[in-house]
Structures are given as structure tokens and as C-alpha cells.
């Protein structure tokens, strides 16, 4: 029996267990930096499988280890995130979230269950493995500054550095049974832009006696769009969006201050740094032209996620050989961001997509919504692809 057939056989054998794990994690979601019970549950499963691990990275993070019995070789790290979102689930299912206002609406339950099941497959195959597999169960992908950054700072790989790293993420628009890959730049950096316009408010009927903070804010927001439309290099995707503007006045009251918050996304670290300096210059200058003052702040977020071309090419080819070419999709860039990018700054990585749309569904609920639900058959695809690609990369 070849290795692909063996992996598929084991994925069928372990599927019901993977399903139970997924449903348990889904039913008991925990927010970023609070994944204590999830971490204990995952640790109990690793103990059950006979996989040694270290726990306590950023309080809840775990690093498991599978040593191949064929001898030393390359080291690959596989990562799954564990945290959930502050969303009230509205799905009518037996394993609906029991934690009020918390839900696995981004598929991290699939990620963790898929990695645990993959770990069991790889542990079963350890006699055929040359090299080391590190299993990273990470907290707080959803919250700044991101669990990836903090785990690395706490010495996640100080005992053994990986030669390469891999992770997957669910994609509700793509059918279950399929996976998607993109070499090179794949996901954007993500910075939070915050500024406050201050002036002397007053009666809206007497604008000549006040400094109009609302008008100044409107001009600043409009002027900042030139950073993307006129300053960004055409070959570098960039997005600047403002989703929060608070001018707490009234129909006839101009407030003393207006607060604004937004996000800046791009695909190039050098341009990213230049753009943020340009934004501050524009915001403060336009505010000053309106006799107001601008307090400008940037919360430096996740970096650009760059998929190593060689690792991704090998992974894509192996997925095609395993699933069939018709089950592998070439992805486009995404302006969303992901803290797995911190690993990509240090190691060759591939971060790929797992389709979770049910064949019966005409339309799937989006990520980060109260009705998001993955087709659980996708767990088999996760187990199979992670296992097969891991073994191929270790060669």
C-alpha cells in the first residue's frame, strides 16, 4: 500500500474521533488569551496519543513533538490556532456554543481538531518518518499583538528550530474536499490607524466662532485616501478604510473633538513604513489648515504573509497527487491579515486554504458571522493534506 492510500485509510479510521474533537471544541469556545480549557483538552489528547509536549507558552500555547523512527532529518512545524470570537452563535445544532457571546466563527475549531487528528496519523506512521514534526497549538490569532509573535518571543523554538512551517485556514466560499495555494505574497499586513481631531466646538449656527472639528475630520479622511490613490506604487496592493468616526455633538452642536479609527493593509513592508509616515504628515497638516490639532497614532499589526515559493510548490504538487488536480485551486492575494505571517518572517512557510462549503449549500455563511458553519467532511481533507504534505516536505 502506498503512503497516500495509507493516509486516506487512517483518515477514515480516525474521522469519527476528529469529529468528536471538533464538536467539543466548537461547543466550548474561548476568547483570545483565555483558551485554558481548550488547551487542557488538547493536552489530554496529546497524552492519549503518546505525543510529548511542552505547555504554557503565552499561558495556553502548546508545542508537541513527533520524532521519526527512521532517524534524524529535517524539522517541520505545523500550526493550529485555538481562540474563538466574541460572537453569539445562532446555529441550531446539537453542539452549539454553550459560552454566551463566544463562538468559533473563524474555523479555529476545525484547525485544532484537524491538527490533532493529523498528529495521530503521523504518530501512527512514525516508523516511516525521517525527521521531526513540531505541533504548534497557538492562542490569540484574533487579538493584537497575536499569539504567534508572543510565542516566538517566549522561545517557542529555542530547543529546535524548524526548517519550514505549514498551516491551513478554512475558506467558506470553497467546496469541502478542495484546497487552495498561492506562492509569494499572499495576505496583507494589517495596521490600525487612530486619530483624534481637537478644536474649540460650539453652536452649529455660529461656525465663525468655533473651529469645526467635524469638517476638519472629513477633510482629513478624504485627503488620506491619496496615500493609496496617488502615493502607493501601482504594483503594490494597498487598502485604507475607516470604519469608526465618533463626533459626539448634536444637530446644532459642533463637538470639541472627533475620534476616528480605521485599518491600513498592504503587501510590501518597505512601502508599509513609508505610507504610515505619509499618513501622519497629511493628517496633521490638514488638521492644522483647519485650525485644529490632530493626535495621530498607529497600532503596528501583523506583517505581510509571504509563502515560500519552493515549499508552496512542493505542497501544491503533493496535494494534487493526493486529491487530484481538480481538487486544488490557485488562490489570489487576500487583503485580510493573519498572524501566521510572523512565522513567515523567520522560516520558509506555506499557508493554504481548506474548502468547507457544503455541497448542498447554495450560499455559505461568511467567516466572523453568527451563522458560520463548516462542512465537517473537510476534516478528512485537512488530515490527509497536512499528513501527506508533511511527509513529502520532510524528504
Task: Summarize the structure in short.
The chain has 10 helices and 16 strands. It has helices at 3-27, 36-49, 108-124, 147-153, 213-224, 226-231, 269-289, 309-323, 341-344, 378-394, and strands spanning 53-57, 61-67, 75-81, 132-138, 164-175, 179-181, 184-187, 189-198, 202-203, 238-246, 253-254, 257-266, 293-302, 305-307, 328-330, 349-357. The model has no long low-confidence stretch (mean pLDDT 97).
Task: Pick out its properties.
Alpha-Beta Plaits; eight-stranded mixed β-sheet; Aminopeptidase; 16 strands; alpha/beta; 10 helices; four-stranded antiparallel β-sheet; single chain; 395 residues
Verbal overview:
- This protein is of the alpha/beta class and 395 residues long.
- The protein has two domains: 3-187 and 304-394, Zn peptidases (Aminopeptidase, 3-Layer(aba) Sandwich), CATH 3.40.630.10; 189-302, Alpha-Beta Plaits.
- Helices cover 35% and strands 26% of the residues.
- It has helices at 3-27, 36-49, 108-124, 147-153, 213-224, 226-231, 269-289, 309-323, 341-344, 378-394; strands at residues 53-57, 61-67, 75-81, 132-138, 164-175, 179-181, 184-187, 189-198, 202-203, 238-246, 253-254, 257-266, 293-302, 305-307, 328-330, 349-357.
- The protein has an eight-stranded mixed beta sheet, sandwiched between helices.
- α3 links the parallel β3 and β4.
- α5 (213-224) runs antiparallel to α7.
- The longest helix is centred in the N-terminal third of the chain and has 25 residues, at 3-27.
- The model has no long low-confidence stretch (mean pLDDT 97).
